[in-house]
């Protein structure tokens, strides 16, 4: 009888997770270490992956989500169990709402204890909680299934309409050992995770026929158009058609905002006037008044203005979600735009000159009016005079990434600062959620290698401000500009009772935010004039050092809720 004394090489759950991610081209991990994933973060770094460790999981999740938008590969957020998982869940839900491909990977308590509710450390049925808030959710219990679990998560995150995916990895999984050769064989390199969906020829013809007959056509570009990375074809379609176009905020830069066909400065004119609207990667949600109401020429908030819509979307159920879609074009944006271009042929007739001239006239009038406003230099600074500086800095540095959040800080930046290249503007997106700023800024720097300018309302900055330590720790080229007006919307509100407490909307007067960056070794600057702001931003871009500029502006410069005051209900008692 012969005894086989050969010792087989083993691997474990830790290394299988790492190998599966590396096999699928994942190189950056955003997260926060702790039980049970502390050793995993160490091993990820040891295996050559970049691990960016945050101060709060929500910010790490936001970083992973926007990394997915920028790269088209799922961004990975790694968290601990229960509270850490819950902190990451807001970012996961936001990623799903915005169609950002992201995978939230969380360690979790042991199933046999959780299922009997016996009180494990940070006990929680995380899979059940995550399911309603993401595209898909999976749990892996056995080491030999890690390859399948990660492959399914990747494919779910990027296929069809992208979104967030949850992957639950119980603590016991990481220590499970198996034969190394069998483990390697169990891993899956995902092939064609987001396959093209070619639109039907009759759908393409229907759309083109509608555009041909249009007297006042308009192209509306959404962030889905930016995500598609079909930049050359989208530009060719716009220019070949001669149709004015309107970019949503994160689609700005697909064509330069200074392009002659851009209708951004004439938005309130073109939306109600257009007769045929081609939606490319844009949804008729609240950001577009659901395609109805006075925005679109309707008589009241429920009335449809009579426009005919062509909608390009990979999800057929998106059509008719608010108003009738005359020509749904179902497929991936790249394939649909290419099909439209091919179908236009060489003799496509441009829109009537009466329409394009009217758009240009309204646009030029509004641009001239804005130029007059930007030229003013009030004391203290206001949004226009400070953002005029930012406008110039972006024009001089078109490769820089712009991150933007707030209420007034968001709205004014959207309308004042021109973008010149695609996927350079990152903001709050569909939900309008506060707190994305520092997470987005970190990921923008890591994924692009370019300088990042983060324009923050002082209220918005409060949600993620501690991540300036993360920016300093990784020495990232991020310049944070806080529009400091001492409060939410405005800093001049008073307590209506006359009591000693400040208004709920007011912050500490004269707050020195720049000292926070200095505390961690970065550069802090107090700017009270446009000249000081300009000098500080130019130095930050040149030095690539972590910088925070406290831009003090008029505390009465803002308006409540920015440009969506109408969404605030009014008290019946107040009406009386």
Which strands sit side by side, in order, in the main sheet?
3-2-4-5-7-6
| Alpha-carbon distance between the two ends | 99 Å
Helix content: 25-40%
Overall strand count: 19
Look up the CATH topology of the largest domain. Rossmann fold
> Based on helices, strands and strand pairing, what is the structural class?
alpha/beta
Shape by Cα distribution: globular
| Uncertain spans | none
Q: State the domain count.
A: 3
The fraction of residues assigned to DSSP E strands is 15-25%
What's the CATH H-level superfamily name of the largest domain?
Thiamin diphosphate (ThDP)-binding fold, Pyr/PP domains
- If you compute it from the alpha carbons, what radius of gyration comes out, rounded to the nearest whole angstrom? 26 Å
Arithmetic mean pLDDT: 95
CATH architecture of the largest domain: 3-Layer(aba) Sandwich
Largest sheet: 6 strands, parallel
State the CATH class of the largest domain. Alpha Beta
Put simply, the count of helices is: 23
List the defining traits of the structure above:
single chain, 576 residues, alpha/beta, Rossmann fold, 3 domains
Would you give an account of this structure?
39% of the residues lie in helices and 16% in strands. The chain has 576 residues and is an alpha/beta fold. Strand 2 (28-31), helix 2 (38-46) and strand 3 (50-53) form a beta-alpha-beta unit. The chain has three domains: 10-186, 3-Layer(aba) Sandwich (Rossmann fold); 201-361, Rossmann fold (3-Layer(aba) Sandwich), CATH 3.40.50.1220; 376-552, Rossmann fold (3-Layer(aba) Sandwich), CATH 3.40.50. The model has no long low-confidence stretch (mean pLDDT 95).
């Amino acid at each position: 009888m012969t005894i086989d004394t050969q010792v087989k090489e083993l691997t474990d759950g830790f290394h299988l997770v790492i190998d599966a991610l590396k096999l699928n081209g994942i190189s950056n991990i955003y997260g926060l270490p702790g039980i049970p994933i502390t050793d995993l973060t160490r091993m990820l770094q040891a295996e050559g992956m970049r691990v960016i460790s945050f101060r709060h999981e929500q910010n790490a999740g936001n970083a992973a989500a926007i990394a997915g938008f920028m790269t088209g590969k799922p961004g990975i957020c790694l968290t601990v169990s229960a509270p850490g998982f819950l902190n990451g869940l807001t970012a996961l839900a936001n990623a799903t709402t915005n169609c950002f491909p992201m995978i939230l990977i969380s360690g979790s308590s042991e199933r046999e204890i959780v299922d009997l509710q016996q009180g494990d450390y940070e006990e929680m049925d995380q899979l059940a909680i995550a399911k309603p808030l993401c595209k898909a959710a999976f749990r892996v219990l056995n080491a030999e299934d890690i390859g399948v679990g990660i492959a399914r998560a990747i494919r779910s995150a990027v296929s069809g309409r992208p979104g967030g995916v949850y992957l639950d990895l119980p603590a016991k999984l990481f220590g499970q050992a198996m034969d190394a050769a069998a483990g390697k064989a169990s891993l899956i390199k995902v092939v064609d995770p987001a396959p093209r969906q070619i639109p039907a020829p009759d759908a393409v013809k229907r759309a083109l026929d509608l555009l041909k007959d249009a007297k006042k056509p308009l192209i509306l570009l959404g962030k889905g158009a930016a995500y598609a990375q079909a930049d050359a074809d989208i530009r060719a379609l716009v220019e070949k058609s001669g149709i004015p176009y309107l970019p949503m905020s994160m689609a700005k830069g697909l064509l330069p905002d200074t392009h002659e066909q851009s209708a951004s400065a004439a938005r309130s004119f073109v939306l109600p006037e257009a007769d045929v609207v081609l939606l490319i990667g844009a949804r008729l949600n609240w950001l577009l008044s659901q395609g109805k109401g006075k925005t679109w020429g309707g008589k009241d908030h429920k009335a449809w203005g009579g426009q005919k819509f062509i909608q390009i979307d990979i999800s057929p159920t998106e059509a008719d979600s608010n108003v009738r879609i005359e020509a749904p074009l179902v497929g991936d944006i790249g394939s649909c735009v290419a099909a439209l271009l091919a179908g236009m042929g060489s003799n496509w007739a441009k829109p009537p000159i009466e329409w394009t001239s009217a758009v240009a006239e309204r646009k030029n009038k509004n641009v001239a009016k804005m130029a007059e406003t930007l030229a003013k230099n009030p004391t203290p600074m206001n949004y226009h005079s400070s953002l005029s500086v930012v406008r110039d800095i972006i024009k001089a540095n078109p490769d820089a990434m712009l991150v933007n959040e707030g209420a007034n800080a968001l709205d004014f930046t959207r309308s004042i600062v021109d973008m010149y290249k695609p996927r350079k503007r990152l903001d709050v997106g569909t939900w309008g959620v506060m707190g994305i700023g520092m997470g987005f800024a970190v990921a923008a720097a890591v994924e692009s290698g370019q300088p990042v300018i983060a324009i923050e309302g002082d209220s918005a900055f409060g949600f993620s401000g501690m991540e300036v330590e993360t920016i300093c720790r990784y020495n990232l080229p991020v310049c944070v500009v806080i529009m400091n007006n001492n409060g939410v919307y405005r800093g001049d509100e008073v307590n209506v009772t006359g009591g000693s407490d400040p208004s709920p909307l007011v912050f500490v007067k004269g707050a020195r935010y720049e000292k926070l960056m200095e505390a961690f070794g970065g550069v802090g600057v107090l700017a009270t004039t446009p000249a000081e702001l300009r000098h500080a931003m130019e130095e930050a871009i040149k030095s690539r050092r972590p910088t925070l500029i406290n831009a003090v502006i008029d505390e009465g410069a803002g308006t409540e809720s920015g440009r969506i005051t109408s969404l605030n209900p009014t008290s019946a008692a107040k009406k009386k």
